[in-house]
Amino acid sequence: MAEAHQAVAFQFTITPEGIDLQLSYQALNQIYLSGVRSWKKRVSRIRNRVIKGVFPASPSSWLFVAIGILATMYMQSDPSMGLIAKIQQHLPLSLHVSLSAQGQTMVSALVFSTLLWLSLILALRFCLKLLLSYHQWMFEQHGRISNTTKVWVTLVRLFSSRKPLLYSYQTSLPHLPVPPIKDTLSRYLESVRPLLTDPEFKRMTDLANHFESNLGNRLQRYLKLKALWATNYVSDWWEEYIYLRSRSPIMVNSNYYGMDFLYVTPTPVQAARAGNTITALLLYRRKVNREELKPSRVPGTVIPLCAAQCERMFNTTRTPGTETDVLQHWQDSEFVAVYHKGRFFRLWVYRAGRLLSPRELEYQIQRILDDTSPPLPGEERLGALTAGDRIPWAQMRKQYFSSGVNRRSLDAIERAAFFITLDDEEQGMRGDDPAGNLDRYAKSLLHGKCYDRWFDKSFSIVIYKNGKSGLNAEHSWADAPTVAHLWEYTLATDAFHLGYTEDGHCKGEVDRSLPHPQRLVWDIPSEVQAQVCTSLAVAQALADDVDCHVFPFREFGKGRIKKCRISPDAFIQISLQLAYYRGEEQCRRLFRVASEKHQNLYRMAMTGAGIDRHLFCLYVVSKYLGVESPFLKEVLSEPWRLSTSQTPVQQMELFDLKNNPDYISLGGGFGPVADDGYGVSYIIVGEDMINFHVSSKHSCSETDSHRFGVQISNALQDIMALLSPDTKTSSSHKAAAQPQSKKLL
Q: Which residues does the UniProt record annotate as the domain Choline/carnitine acyltransferase (predicted)?
């Protein structure tokens, strides 16, 4: 506990008269209050376990069942059909001696009521799981809902009428099904057909057929066996083999970033922005711990989504290993780690069991900003170890950070709730070059200086000198929607609920007796400093090669796209593929066909019938069995030159975007997946804007993020012009866009 480090609860001295004991009542009181907070959390966890354990029923429903059974018995009827009498016969002998016959009957009735209640809970949970396994609603046309789906929606609403906790649905979610191998292979061949010549497609078809008739069915049986006991037969292998076993740098290659508001900076005071941001994040953590957050649902429906990724959001670090990394998670942490101008600090965020106020956190952050002490030898660029290759970092960590002062300081970072960088630069869409500044803002969040972030933490917050903020998230523990949910809550709580005074400071009072933030102490030998330089060189080369371009597309948004009766996601995805066609009727027809196909494919993926995860797991099984498959080897080695992702916004609706249009979030982005490809993240904001984050590598002469951004904008407008009779694209625009589209495709 923080207070135990800041004050001595008691002291004693030995005198000729005996032992002189001196108690510090203030310190003891702080320890007591911290203990009370800890016990409150334990009681809350126990309470939540009980509530989750009986969902979709409620604990109080036991009382209704018991009263109903007792009332029926009072009416001289036996609702148990003889079971209560049998239970009474098997009661312990001590109860037969101490209780009358009527008392024994009462106890037996209560035992029967409890067993009946538990049976009803299991039945309700089974029914809910069956209801959530229904997928036909995804494939019905908008406005043409079948009677079956209407009944299904009513039943799901009925079963979900109680206010669920964050994890209430976890035991009721259906297992991820293993799709038939024949269907997966058929969909794979269909997806690659446009990319292959006739001889290449025939060869791939022969490989697929040979795989299906020989090794494929054997591997499939192992997957079905795993799916019987695992709720998700993909997730653990995906986490380990796609993320944790990668030995290349996670900076740029794996980590992703999230941005601040586009037009608004709530305060220009760096310490104040940090104070409110820390408070908002810890309030979110409190909601996660108490399970007070509403379970996320499929947008526009009552279908709950898995919330397992929230469990490792805070107090989590990816620790390096020689063969594979490991995710370490701690139940709680009362401090955060802070980096500023080459120094690391531990900042306690609780005092005497209470969370510090935003104003107190601002006060503590300002103390760090005002600290002029220089970095210790080797301290300033120590974070570069987390940005470089994983094996050298694992070796350094094992040899030089396993004991002593380095171990204690590393623990302070790894066990922290999260990591904060107080950046000495200014960022955001500002100045005479707002577009260029947005690109530099993205690069800063993606990799920074390559040593001023701790890329192993589950997420790191960056607070810039001008009050702008952002985050960098490690990817293995969660996908972007989970982090986006956290960041959306943080931004909204910061700006609309906590707020600032007129001069830009946090609200609240300050206890000026707060202990100073604790400087972390290091003893960095020359061998570690040499490896820091090597890791920094690797990371710097990777960072310099990244080309980022961020731009808000304001010509139209999902509102106008929906008027064309097309899914906004399908519109964005397919418009890039068809932009180079100039036969308008052909393009319009093909676009609608392709959009419907795209929607059908992502619906299939949502129901567990996707292609890549299934083939990936078959490949993992083949490796475990020590067998080779030419088909799987070729499929898994195919490059993904265009990687796209849509990040959801307004998941929580904490403020009205229509009435606060300036508080639009830019969303976030990620690095390119292939050296000769693009990474494209897009965020559909409100009805009239789409934000794009494009990344590529300077080292590839065929890619250019800014040029591709122009092409995206042109492609969207071209397709809208085809679908909307009142919108036309100028001939000069078409002439400029056409060669770029052909070159890309």
A: 176-585
